Amino acid sequence: MDTTSNSKHRPFSIKLWPPSESTRLVLVQRLTNNLSSNSIFTQKYGALDKEDAEENAKKIEDIAFNVANEQYDREPDGDGGAAVQLYAKECSKLLLEVLKRGPAEKEKELASQNNASAETFFDISKGQRAFIKAEEAENLLRPLKEPGNSYTKICFSNRSFGLEAARVAEPILVSLKNQLKEVDLSDFIAGRPETEALEVMNIFSAALEGSVLKSLNLSNNALGEKGVRAFGSLLKSQSCLDELYLMNDGISEEAAKAVCELIPSTEKLKVLHFHNNMTGDEGALAISDVVKRSPLLEDFRCSSTRVGSEGGVALAEALESCTNLKKLDLRDNMFGVEAGVALSKALSKHLDLVEVYLSYLNLEDEGTVAIANALKESAPSLEVLEMAGNDITADAGPTIAACIAAKRHLTKLNLAENELKDEGTIQISKALEEGHTLLKEVDMSTNFIRRAGARHLAQVVVQKPGFRLLNINGNIISDDGVDEVKEVFKKYPDVLGSFDENDPEGGDDDDDDDDDGEKSGEGEANEDELESKMKNLEVGQEE
């Protein structure tokens, strides 16, 4: 399968999860100190001795890490911020629970929690990606054969099953299918010849047919139409699915039609991820039918699927019925203006949207303005807005700024790889001035921004509590302008992204108001004049 993305170069982003081993060790040390040293809590509930404190700290951190890691697995393309917050919250909760219990109870309770987690989730995906043979499958899957086990979630990802190993797994899955709720078979036939892979999929499908699953992940298996149909008996038997993942599966037009045909019931579906396939417009029409039958859909991802204008319009119209939508990711397709305008009509009905990813869709100003106007009136709790790489110019700046001004819960804004220049940048900066105390990340890289726009944006975001990253790399900021921005962030140098792709000379010959041969100092004066003229500009003011 050709999984080459048809997008432009992606801007740099920071992943906050998972934490490094050293970070985890530091946290264990802090937990140990909190359990054993004098504080208002240990005065009230009693302190642990150093040895017990360290043992319990390790268990607390391990449980919290596993809980947070499950959260991150559900949102692998996020920055990990939600997982980090959950990690800290779980540590705090478990720490207090340990202190509240007497020394004799704390270890017993933590062991019980760890065992409960282990007993319900069976995972063989850790470690190196590898082929497994029948004997190894017998050993790996032995816990699933124990009488009375309580496993409800299994993950066979990252291990490649051949026929012999599949036949070992078959009776075990049959014995478990009435208790299973979540099944992850992503990347479980890697490197197998097509004939063998299809037979393995048929075996797993038949073994799990009739199970009542809440979540099914078949990603990263290069399914194609044959693979989708190999899982036909399993797919047809599902009527209670909450989550379905079909990412990077080589799903063409024909395979998409097979998906639509073989999933008869999607009334309860809340999550549908269809990232990185070769679906195209015709395939998008089939997926649109699935979306139309999914009124409870909350999280829809159809990014990098080679969908053009016709398919984009179909998806947009289908999304109009999904009024519970919270997360929408359509990045890296070829929608164009018409599909962008159609999408704006759907977005006007989505009051619960929290995250919107619309980068690299060829929206241009017209599509962008339509979407920004729609979002301004809907999605009051919007936290993430990404519209990078859409050929957006400063002409769309006032509308984008008006939309952003209304989104006081915004945590991340990505408008990279556009042509907003200083004018659009300052308009957007002014929209962020009042409120927006939750803002954590802004990416305005590669936007032909110069000194004035960079300075104004920096002065606004540096005042936001907890702000983590400003990326204005790849612009045409003068050396003096870069120094000014660095001075703004002198107390928080780690918050400011790199300038290694900035071109300080790039704007010398591109000043609308400069004559040929004018010096860069005069260009900077024009930048200051632009900023001065825009100081009193009201957000939402039309030109």
TrEMBL record:
Subcellular location: Cytoplasm; Nucleus
Nucleus recorded as keyword: yes
Pfam families for this protein: LRR_6, WPP
Domain of life of the native organism: Eukaryota
UniProt biased composition (Acidic residues): 500-517
SUPFAM superfamilies: RNI-like
GO CC annotations on file: cytoplasm; nucleus
Every WPP domain range: 13-108
Keywords: Cytoplasm, Nucleus
Protein's UniProt keywords contain Nucleus: yes
Region (Disordered): 494-543
A GO term for molecular function: GTPase activator activity
Protein name: WPP domain-containing protein
